[in-house]
TrEMBL record:
Record domain SnoaL-like: where: 102-213
Top-level taxon of the source organism: Eukaryota
Coiled-coil blocks: none
Protein name stated in the entry: G2633 protein
InterPro entries documented for this protein: NTF2-like_dom_sf, SnoaL-like, UVR_dom
Gene giving rise to this polypeptide: g2633
SUPFAM superfamilies reported for this sequence: NTF2-like
Organism: Coccomyxa viridis
Pfam families on file: SnoaL_3, UVR
Domain called UVR: residue spans: 64-92
Length: 220
């Protein structure tokens, strides 16, 4: 490890650098570009050890997708292919579960939209200063209260049927987004809107924090 970090220079070993009371003193002995690498390696190694410890305890179910991916990469580096296969299966299942949860949350959003249910719409929207909405041909509306007020106006309008095409889901730890094409039908009118919905996990529930809709190109 020391050779990988410090090349052929040996005035201070890696252990001596870690125990040095003044990091700047140790940095004088490091080649250019490696002055903080020791701390970075330590941080990554400590994080790996914490994750491994949690994975072998009752906290394993709380591991994030990122942590599981790190464990999988570590198992492959150690050529522990049995553990790597187990972690791969866990990751695949967790990703599938997250995708299903996002698909359900997205469907809940459009059910509220289609049924013009303001209460249901308010329940699917999250909280926070980052909550935003951009309706077709409109500017950005920021803040939960303002966003819900915009939906109040929209849901008071003409009833419409809404169906979705080309739904694509990307889910990660605590955040996800959906892109889709909205097919709107109201009376004799029919329109297509491309939409992006951003979701966030708040208090254990997936909620929408950003919706952006715009006219779909004619060639779609």
């Amino acid at each position: 490890m020391a050779e990988a970090l410090f090349g052929n220079l040996q005035p201070l070993t890696h252990g001596q650098i870690r125990s040095c009371s003044d990091l700047r003193q140790a940095q004088r002995y490091l080649p250019s570009g490696t002055k903080h690498r020791g701390r970075a390696v330590d941080a990554r190694w400590n994080k790996r050890n914490r994750i491994v410890s949690r994975a072998s305890s009752s906290e394993a179910t709380d591991l994030s997708l990122t942590d599981l991916q790190l464990l999988l990469e570590d198992a492959i580096r150690q050529e522990n292919y049995q553990e790597a296969a187990r972690l791969r299966d866990v990751l695949t299942q967790r990703e599938s579960d997250s995708r299903s949860a996002i698909e359900d949350a997205n469907a809940e959003f459009y059910r509220a939209f289609k049924s013009r249910d303001l209460k249901a719409m308010s329940e699917i929207w999250g909280t926070g200063e980052h909550v935003q909405c951009i309706h077709p041909a409109a500017g950005c509306i920021a803040g939960r209260d303002n966003v819900l007020e915009s939906w109040r106006v929209i849901l008071r309008g003409m009833p419409m049927d809404i169906s979705l095409e080309d739904v694509r889901v990307c889910a990660r730890d605590g955040a996800a987004f959906v892109t889709c094409v909205e097919i709107m039908e109201a009376g004799d009118s029919r329109g297509r809107t491309v939409a992006t919905n951003v979701f966030e996990r708040q208090n254990g529930k997936w909620v929408i924090v950003h919706h952006h809709g715009g006219p779909a190109p004619m060639f779609m």
